[in-house]
Write a structure and sequence with these properties.
mainly alpha
């Protein structure tokens, strides 16, 4: 073992941090976190008691069960965004709808805090898209590729280049005026 080998000297915390960073980058992590944080106050506030000295202020409402269900569903949707990111669009739309429903049902959406967090989490979930790995020799974004370095099979083309197959030209032969076929040209010219 040489002193230059870094693989065996890595600290466990560094390894876990890198693993977590990789896991977090492959899913809508912040969307799930905001959605779960939005569900907590929506579910908690209807059952909370506020103590002011000797006086207890109960926040319970008649819609306590509805707000508990909305809060638990938001937490479940946040976990779904983390662990089953293929349904992120559905989970985001459902989180936005539940956040909107929480305004009249759950103490103005958990005193607006839960509403805003769930709304932001749902929007982040809808807008998140998985990244694609870049090839090792990829040019920076927006930089033109010199003509001598362009390779048609690599898929890279300079900006403004046409993407797609060329359309074959119609043969300009004789056409039958009775059938209406004129070789693809317009009758006016």
């Amino acid at each position: 073992m040489s002193p230059e080998s870094t693989g065996q000297n890595e600290h466990n915390l560094t390894v876990y941090r890198r693993g977590f960073r990789t896991w977090r980058g492959n899913r809508p992590f912040w969307a799930g976190l905001f959605t779960m944080l939005g569900g907590a106050p929506i579910a908690y506030f209807p059952y909370a008691d506020l103590h002011l000295g000797n006086m207890t202020l109960a926040m319970s409402t008649t819609a306590g069960a509805g707000s508990l269900i909305i809060g638990i569903l938001l937490i479940t949707l946040g976990l779904t965004m983390w662990f089953h990111s293929i349904v992120r669009v559905f989970a985001g739309v459902a989180a936005i709808l539940l956040a909107l429903i929480s305004i009249p049902v759950a103490n103005i959406g958990g005193f607006v805090v839960g509403f805003l967090l769930a709304l932001i989490g749902g929007a982040l979930s809808i807008s998140w898209a998985p990244g694609e790995p870049q090839p090792a020799e990829a040019a920076p974004q927006g930089a033109p590729i010199p003509l001598d370095k362009q390779q048609p099979e690599s898929g890279y083309a300079p900006e403004g280049a046409l993407h797609g197959a060329a359309v074959p030209q119609q043969p300009a032969g004789d056409h039958d005026a009775a059938s209406g076929y004129d070789g693809g040209t317009h009758r006016a010219g």
